[in-house]
Amino acid sequence: MDMLLFSSSHLAVAIKTGIVTGILSLTEGIAVGTTFASLANYPVDGNKEMMAIGAMNMVGSCTSCYVTTGSFSRSAVNYNAGAKTAVSNTVMAAAVLVTLLFLMPLFHYTPEVILAAIIITAVIGLIDYRAAGRLWKVDKLDFAACLCSFVGVVFVSVPVGLSVAVGVSMFKVLLHVTRPNAVVLGNLPGTQIYQSVQRYGEAERVASFLIVAVESPIYFANSTYIKERIMRCIREEEELIEANKETAGLKYVVVDMTAVSAIDTSGIELLCELRKTLEGRSLQLVLANPGGTVMEKLHLSKSLQLFGSNGLFISVGEAVAHISSLSKAHREVI
Fold first, then answer.
1. C-alpha radius of gyration, the chain, whole number
2. Is the dihedral of CA 323, 185, 275, 262 positive or negative?
3. Per the UniProt record, which residue ranges are transmembrane (predicted)?
4. pTM more than 0.90
5. Residue 136 above 80 pLDDT?
6. Alpha-carbon distance 238 to 236, whole Å?
7. Are the beta carbons of 311 and 286 closer than 8 angstroms?
8. pLDDT of 101-135, one tens digit each?
9. How far apart (Å, rounded) are the C-alpha atoms in residues 1 and 193?
10. Which residues, other chains included, contact 181 with Cβ-Cβ below 8 Å and sequence gap of 6+?
């Protein structure tokens, strides 16, 4: 214990290197396991993979072992050799031990190109260019992560390739969190179904209503963007009404919260601020189909009282039908 030195100037570098190495080792091991699991059609438990890699490195550190993880090249050689169980690893370890102890002079002059050829032959069959083409068609950011990972692994190293791929994937997650979809909905004729007016050409706008669906949780990271997006939809709707010279102006803004699985205090403040802003423009904010978790937080924050009985409904169809009937009754009374 007295040989451990915690006052060295290199301690911070060692801690940073250890954290980065650990993250890359876990990422590489799980990525390799997932790749071969998809090829052989067997399940992979990420938690067990992490526990196995951690236990392996803890035991290895007692004998000054090098940091280890799931090797992609050796896994590929094992897979192409027909290995089915973990016994293959025992056989391979025994063969490596015998080679290191007794056969090293025979392999001393073996060209590295031969070793590279063995690995390339085993790995080249794992390259699925058709899958890359599908990624390009479906999601450009997924394709970018795939391409960066491939280039980094082939031309630099596995840790660099995985680091770049993880960075691109994290950027994609942050992009979706901070800039969620908010689409304008219209009614499908003859039904109570409301879908995006951009995706469904037959969807019709409802007079006096603007229906906006928010397709993500509402957090502090995206609350400002969601408010700006809704206000932009309102401006576009008002411009469209003015351009078409429609007699029925915009009166109600319905926010479909079906896809809002969670909300925090910033999201609740967003709804309250949006309600006040719309009231100043003689518009009524209506919430449709908030989930159980969202309803509970709105109730605990006492924000539900601000919307009243005509500001909260279990579906967009019910909101439009109920408000339209009240508006019609009010006009008849007048």
1. 30
2. positive
3. 86-107, 113-131, 143-171
4. no
5. yes
6. 5
7. yes
8. 888 888 777 788 887 887 777 677 667 778 888 88
9. 70
10. 214, 215, 216
